[in-house]
Amino acid sequence: MPTLEPVIEFRPDQLKWEAVLEEIRRRIRTGEYQVGHPIPGEPRMAEEFGIAKGTARRVINELLKAGDVYTVLGKGTFVADPETGGPPRRDTEDE
Length: 95
Hints:
Blueprint: H1 16-30, H2 42-49, H3 53-66, E1 69-72, E2 76-79
Antiparallel strand pairs: 1-2
């Protein structure tokens, strides 16, 4: 069975959740994860980065606290609008 290559290299002086948090924020900054689009959930994040689900949960909670993402019950966790910390604003000019 093939093993997955690590997506990031963990440094010995950094906690795993901090390294994954840094990588997710990098992906948001570069537009790989765009405003209003989902980020990986706990199971997928755990698999992708080779971390425990509890560690993935910590990453998501830190992103939520910082306003980097928001959750929609039953739908997932999405990249937040940097101005509002929530869903992207809809253009109301034409309404």
